[in-house]
Specification:
Shape: elongated
Radius of gyration: 14 Å
Order of helices and strands: HEHE
Distance between the termini: 32 Å
Largest sheet: 2 strands, parallel
Number of helices: 2
Structural class: alpha+beta
Strand content: 15-25%
Helix content: 25-40%
Length: 50
Amino acid sequence: MRLAKIASLLAGGRVRIHVDAVLPFAEAAKAHELGEAGHTKGKIVLSLPE
């Protein structure tokens, strides 16, 4: 699927993404532990400092 098609689906609300947790980049190890534990129901996002 082309990137433009995926962007169109996201913009149109036809595809939704569930974010389970947003953690600062400094907590990358914790994010990895959460993912390995298998209890998340969505994506784990690392935020970068400005």
